[in-house]
Write a structure and sequence with these properties.
Number of strands: 2
Shape: globular
Largest sheet: 2 strands, antiparallel
Strand order of the largest sheet: 1-2
Oligomer: single chain
Number of helices: 11
Strand content: under 5%
Length: 347
């Protein structure tokens, strides 16, 4: 009985060591402090920017229904917020407490890092495809009006694909001592991500060129609509470029890691993991950049925040000397309206 328990305990220790061994080069020396501080800053950066997007969309739209594009932006923001709330804290725990972590937590961290990064990239591709259909087919394909079912189907497909990769990593690769299986995994993820990035580039390049062409050919009546479409297209293009720039280093290191793993050299594989983890951190920056680009390019959201900050930081004497009616509080959120009314009544 005692020997059986000792054997199980020994196996558990060996399993945990297998899960941890790839990350020892990352969780040493000054790397721990630098990585922890940068992750903490990134958490704040992601949360503030994405909450600002959600807040801006909600209050700038009022009672109007959301477009498909805006719904996808909401979904992207939700995915990015999960990066800050789940993935980044697990990254910090990994580098700070690696020697005491078991396979369960390391697997959980692996699951979320693969799932969220792949799913976020997939949503950017869906946003590009949705804009392409809206601009060139006027939401109609072969005479049929395109409803939201195709978006739901796309979301489900990419959700399942991202889930399969993340489960593969969390269940098999984290605990595996077979470097050839690792090689297959890293190569598969790199290929899948390359497909997403290539599709994003092709769709957005075609979209931007054709939109510019339409602007040159359109009449005055539809010119304003096309200008709005062009602005949204350029916004999506910027988000797509950011995706490609931040994800490209990770794709390269994935391919390189797959090559090193195929040579069955574990010491070299450990050395590759350190730059690999840093490229993942660069990927996570995309979660904040998406939101900042959208805020910077959306006129309604910018106008709303400009009005809000102008009212909040207005000097006290101006609030006293001017009637509350002169401030356009109808455009402000309710909490801001109450804030100004209370401020004036107290004075």
């Amino acid at each position: 009985m005692i020997s059986t328990l000792n054997h199980r305990e020994t196996n558990s220790i060996q399993d945990n060591e297998v899960c941890r061994h790839l990350f020892y080069t990352v969780a040493t020396g000054n790397n721990v402090t630098i990585f922890t501080v940068l992750c903490a800053i990134n958490i704040l950066f992601i949360l503030i920017s994405n909450v600002a997007v959600a807040f801006g969309l909600i209050y700038s739209k009022g009672k109007k229904s959301y477009t498909r594009n805006e719904k996808l932006v909401f979904l992207l923001s939700c995915s990015d917020v999960l990066v800050a709330l789940i993935h980044e804290p697990l990254q910090i725990i990994l580098v700070k407490n690696l020697k005491t972590l078991g396979c369960a937590l390391i697997s959980a961290r692996g699951f979320w890092h693969v799932f969220l990064l792949l799913f976020s990239g997939s949503i950017v591709l869906l946003i590009s495809i949705e804009q392409y259909i809206a601009v060139f087919y006027n939401n109609r394909i072969w005479g049929f009006y395109v409803k939201e079912i195709y978006l739901v189907s796309g979301i489900v497909f990419y959700f399942i694909a991202s889930m399969m990769f993340s489960l593969w990593y969390a269940i098999d690769i984290v605990r595996s001592t077979n470097v050839y299986r690792m090689s297959i995994f890293f190569f598969s993820v790199a290929t899948y991500t390359t497909f997403i990035l290539t599709a994003v580039i092709i769709v957005n390049t075609t979209l931007l060129r054709s939109t510019l062409k339409r602007l040159g050919e359109c009449n005055i009546r539809v010119h304003k609509k096309n200008q709005i479409e062009r602005r949204l297209t350029v916004t999506i293009m910027f988000i797509s470029i950011t995706l490609v720039v931040t994800y490209a280093p990770s794709v390269i290191t994935n391919f390189y890691t797959a090559i090193i793993a195929s040579k069955d050299n574990k010491s070299d594989l450990q050395n590759v993991i350190k730059p690999f983890m840093w490229t993942l951190f660069v990927c996570e920056l995309n979660s904040a950049f998406n939101a900042l680009i959208y805020i910077g390019r959306n006129k309604k959201i910018k106008k709303m925040y400009a009005l809000l900050f102008n009212q909040i930081f207005e000097s006290e004497w101006k609030l006293i000397n001017n009637p509350i009616g002169k401030y356009n509080l109808v455009k402000l959120p309710r909490f801001a309206t109450k804030l100004f009314r209370n401020k004036c009544s107290s004075n």
